[in-house]
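Let's practice the habit of predicting before peeking. Look at the sequence and jot down your guess about where helices and strands might fall. Then scroll down.
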Amino acid sequence: MNTPLIQAPAREMLMLLEGLAAFSAPGPGVTRLLYTPEWLQAQQFLQERMAGMGLAVRTDRVGNVYGRLGGSQPDSKVILTGSHIDTVLNGGKYDGAYGIAAAMTALNYLQQTFGQPLRTLEVVSFSEEEGSRFPLTFWGSGHVTGLYDGSEAETAADSEGVTIKSAMEACGLSSEHPLGDLRDLGDHKAVAAGQTAARTDIGAFVELHIEQGIVLEQSALQIGVVQAIAGQRRFTVKVGGTANHAGTTPMLHRRDALAGAAEMLLELERSAVEAGDPLVATSGRLEVYPGTSNVIPGDVQFTLDIRHSEAKRLESFCSGVMAGFEDIAARRGLTLEVVRTLSTAPAPMDQGLSRTLEQICLSQGRTFRTMISGAGHDAQLFASGCRTAMIFVPSRAGISHSPDEYSSLEELAAGLDVLTAMLYELAYKES
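Done guessing? Here is the structure:
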């Protein structure tokens, strides 16, 4: 399994991608939010295609869809591959969907070419990853890995007040009757809300994804072998000063919250540049009160998003930044309140699987590099529980979460080749 695939599988994959893109709410790009009619239609479309490939199809209680190619060694653990079906608002047609279409195509090719594997292969279309509709992320893979127990569905609601539970029921899903209108050809039993449904039968997870960045394109490389997915820290920072008249308050007597916040953000940027790759730090939202042109700002609130692939360096950088913010606030006579809103640990990929991916790229004559993923992915939830690997292909101009998201057929086919060879190594080899 070291030679590139013929072109027919790549065309099959592209047809699946185009088919999925048709299930979208009106508007530019692709909008397919969790438990909407478009989402349900897309998952049912995938079930039909999986069944047509001869895979055993099932869904779990949150709507994850699986296609299973049973192995001849029933006691061996499952090799799982796939990605997420949901999108952001007005997103692209490759994010998530590419990993599902490629995984289905790879299983179909392997079955037709080599027959039954030794170890069971499964493709999965996770119900949700983005957090675009409800205030949580990884709802699909989080149930597979035990991050969620289902009780969250009672309280988590979208902007219109619809709870996850209500939205699930509208799709024929519930914790008591998890299959609803979606058919189940497997043997997994329902699990009541409040009890973990984490699977323990998964031996490896492999995810293929567009890079969503510009590194591979700028380097003119075909494949990215992900070494780790960066950990994240998110904060809300509130800076308090004194609102006062803009014309009558001397400069040296001001407690300007916006000026203090501006100095903090410049310090953040300076520190991040000094720390170097792969650390990144971003402030994506800033609110000023009272927000009028002739009043000195009395209060400012801004967000921070800080990421690094090494836990100690991430924590050290955050601590240093906060100490710097405190010094700035004290010098300017301002108050400072910092609330951590998210903390995820870095997720290193399996070194052995990463080396296998590198060998596959070499054997196929693919250009590649190892890299860190700054974006979050379903793979990070599996990394602590089973061997996990992740493959990137280039994204044009690094654009993602946009209708302009694009990867060429040649680039997508290269990722398919590498994924297929990896699944062959994991499921068909004796070792």
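How did you do? Confidence is low (pLDDT under 50) at residues 177-196.
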